[in-house]
Inverse folding.
């Protein structure tokens, strides 16, 4: 990152409110320039705007800064919020609660906590040690990567609040119901032996998250960590989306992922599971698929499978779960995603 002079470096600490106000105005001003700037850049290129390449370039030049700007803004804000939702505090909120209401709470916490599939094993171990029920733990582990602030903000920015709220409701429903079913199956015996034998640890109270200036620092740290980690996936996702937007015929995509193809939803899930990316990388692809006539339910099923059932997460969870419990986890979540896809293709 660019080094700041001493007065600017300490400004967020000394005048946090004025810093946040000016940063918000600057963010909005930049966001308003993206569409005309992308059109102006394409107009300067030796490419016809109406050509396939011109359409693909405009999509890429508009969506790349837009997604990065949205991502930076929401990660900064949620980094401030997440300074309160540490792993210790999250375990404390879930420990000792009964199934049912606890599944709802766990899935809801997944929205505002900064954990991804790479955090699956340490979080799982911490929850087991804190006495959090197995099904409640799975509700959290499903919701945290799938229904996170990055996914919801990018969906809102690219598609509007209706699609964002729809995805929020669907994701929470899959996480809550899947966790509840796994809890009802009483599969604690299928934890790896070393995990099951770990001593339980009492979770005590945790300290305050800090003053506003310290939370701003947490926001900057989140931007460095998360945006620094996911930007390559964003570029790849937008590049694929640009190719679909510019070159794939609309009729082809409608026939391949449209409502009339009954097999499109399970195929979308099968394609999505092996893909290793995150919400920031897959949403530009989703945008291009919908613009080309793909059915909403099919595209949502694809997105959910990429984010919630990624193959790397399954491999990571194998360290703490026996194969039968992993198979149940994948089967239950995949069934919920398939149901979501079919229902919304039917009613929308």
């Amino acid at each position: 990152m660019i080094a700041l002079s001493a007065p600017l470096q300490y400004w967020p600490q000394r005048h946090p409110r004025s810093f946040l106000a000016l940063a918000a105005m600057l963010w909005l001003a930049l966001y308003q320039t993206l569409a005309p700037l992308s059109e102006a850049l394409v107009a300067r290129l030796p490419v016809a705007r109406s050509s396939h390449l011109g359409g693909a370039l405009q999509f890429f030049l508009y969506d790349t800064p837009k997604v990065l700007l949205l991502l930076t803004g929401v990660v900064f804000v949620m980094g401030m919020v997440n300074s309160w939702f540490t792993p210790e505090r999250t375990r404390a909120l879930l420990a000792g609660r009964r199934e049912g209401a606890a599944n709802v709470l766990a899935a809801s916490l997944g929205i505002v906590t900064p954990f991804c599939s790479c955090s699956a094993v340490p979080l799982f171990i911490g929850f087991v040690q804190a006495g959090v029920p197995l099904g409640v733990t799975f509700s959290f582990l499903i919701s945290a990567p799938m229904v996170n602030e990055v996914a919801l903000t990018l969906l809102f920015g690219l598609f509007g609040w209706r699609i964002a709220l729809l995805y929020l409701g669907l994701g929470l429903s899959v996480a809550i119901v899947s966790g509840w079913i796994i809890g009802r199956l009483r599969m604690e015996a299928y934890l790896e032996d070393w995990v099951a034998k770990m001593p339980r640890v009492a979770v005590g109270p945790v300290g305050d998250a800090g003053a506003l200036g310290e939370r701003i620092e947490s926001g900057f740290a989140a931007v460095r960590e998360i945006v620094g980690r996911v930007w390559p996936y964003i570029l790849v996702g937008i590049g694929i989306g640009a190719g679909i937007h510019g070159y794939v015929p609309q009729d082809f995509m409608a026939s391949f992922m449209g409502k009339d193809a009954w097999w499109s939803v399970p195929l979308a899930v099968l394609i999505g599971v092996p893909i290793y990316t995150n919400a920031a990388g897959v949403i530009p692809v989703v945008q291009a698929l919908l613009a080309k006539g793909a059915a909403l339910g099919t595209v949502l099923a694809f997105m959910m499978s990429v984010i919630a059932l990624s193959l790397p997460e399954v491999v990571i969870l194998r360290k703490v779960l026996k194969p039968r419990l992993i198979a149940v986890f994948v089967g239950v979540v995949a069934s919920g995603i398939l149901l979501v896809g079919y229902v919304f293709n039917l009613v929308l």
Notes: Confidence is low (pLDDT under 50) at residues 1-6, 203-207.
